[in-house]
Design goal:
The chain contains nine helices and 19 strands. The chain has 359 residues and is of the alpha/beta class. It has a single domain, classed as 4-Layer Sandwich (Purple Acid Phosphatase, chain A, domain 2), CATH 3.60.21.10. Strands 1, 2, 3, 6, 7, 16, 17, 18 and 19 form a nine-stranded mixed sheet that branches. The protein has a six-stranded mixed sheet with strand order 9-10-12-13-15-14. Strand 18 and strand 19 form a beta hairpin. It is globular and about 50 Å long.
Length: 359
């Protein structure tokens, strides 16, 4: 738990209040018993949290007038984890020229202040909007992240930077975070190369696999956040996403999470790799983006093994665009829907065999 953040105390208060008010438990929990440790002391537990697409455009632009409250009360849920990650789906810039595409998102540097205030530790900027205002906008996005002290993975000044992980250690467990984009739009023009700034593209499969393998050599756990899938109304992951998940799971990714479809998608296991195909929108600009159902994915590690994963149901406010923890019938409905989404993922409901202690 990030004890340094004052929101942790608020998290405890909200949890007690939620219980009293009849909050429904997190959606379906995917739990696997960890193997006994050969030593007398079991590996320390670590909690990670993930949420979906975030930007500050249209109805959410005004939230940055007060970055400390931009995410609303759900910040307590985000802050309660040891490390938290979202997809920041916007260029962070006031400059640049719009790229030849339909939708363009950008926000001022205060977006990173909002991210920090919400208890988010790392963002993926590997998506189909980070270069909406060209490479000038990308440079500003990266520079603003560095100035704010927010690790941003998945894009950079060249391929080496874009495919590089952010590595952190929590109670003896080293965790590497990577970001990749698989969306087809402008991908060849936006991809990072050895001599050109851009995005870490999942379509460059050999380079993505090599990045995961390199990260695995440096860390006990590799987390990969992927922007992938079909944009709008398709609740099953496409074959391309499934194939990429298998590739990076085989390369050493232990946790794979995704976004882009504007919908919740299902989760499950590829061997002992936990995969979540879509976390939907989170802080979102409009009310007609397919679904306001969302949530916070909470993953518990014991050492390098995934012990448990659960979705905490939430709803995006029609008024503010902020996510709010779901209660009562809404929470139960989202939980049921989320459990049913696995049927078309091709993923297993359980991890076969005992957990690998470090493989």
């Amino acid at each position: 738990m990030k004890l340094a953040r004052p929101l942790v105390a608020l998290a405890a208060t909200l949890t007690l209040t939620a219980c009293a008010a009849g909050h429904v438990s997190p959606a379906r929990s995917t739990t696997v018993a960890a193997s006994p440790s050969p030593s007398s002391a079991a590996p320390a537990k670590v909690t990670l949290a993930f949420a979906g697409d975030v930007h500050f455009v249209d109805r959410t632009a005004g939230l940055l007038d007060n970055p400390a409250t931009a995410f609303g009360p759900i910040s307590s849920t985000l802050s309660a984890a040891d490390r938290t990650m979202v997809n920041l789906e916007t260029a962070v810039t006031t400059r640049g020229t719009p790229e030849p595409k339909r939708f363009h998102f950008r926000a001022p540097a205060r977006a990173y202040d909002a991210v920090k205030a919400a208890g988010i530790d790392v963002v993926s900027i590997a998506n189909n909007h980070t270069l909406d205002y060209g490479r000038v906008g990308l440079a500003d996005t990266v520079d603003a992240a560095k100035a704010a002290g927010v690790p941003a993975v998945g894009a950079g000044a060249n391929a080496a930077a874009a495919f590089a992980p952010w590595i952190t250690e929590i109670r003896g467990t080293k965790i590497a975070f990577l970001g990749f984009n698989q969306v087809f739009e402008l991908w060849s023009a936006w991809k990072a190369t050895d001599t050109r700034a851009g995005i870490a593209m999942a379509r460059d499969v050999p380079r993505a696999v090599a990045a995961v393998r390199a990260a695995r050599k440096q860390a006990d756990v590799v987390v990969v956040y992927v922007h992938w899938g079909s944009n709008g109304g398709v609740s099953c992951p496409p074959d391309e996403a499934r194939a990429f998940a298998r590739e990076i799971a085989g390369a050493g990714a232990r946790i794979i999470v995704g976004a882009h479809a504007h919908l919740l998608l299902g989760d499950g296991w590829i061997g002992d790799t936990f995969v979540q195909y879509g976390l939907g929108n989170f802080v979102w600009r409009r009310d007609d983006a397919y679904s306001n159902d969302t949530g916070v994915l909470r993953v518990t590690l014991q050492g390098s093994a995934v012990e448990k994963a659960e979705l905490v149901p939430a709803l995006i406010s029609r008024r503010t665009g902020q996510p709010e923890l779901a209660t009562g019938q809404d929470a139960a409905r989202i939980a049921r829907k989320y459990a049913d989404l696995r049927s078309c993922t091709g993923l297993s409901a359980t991890r076969p065999g005992p957990a690998r202690p470090g493989g």
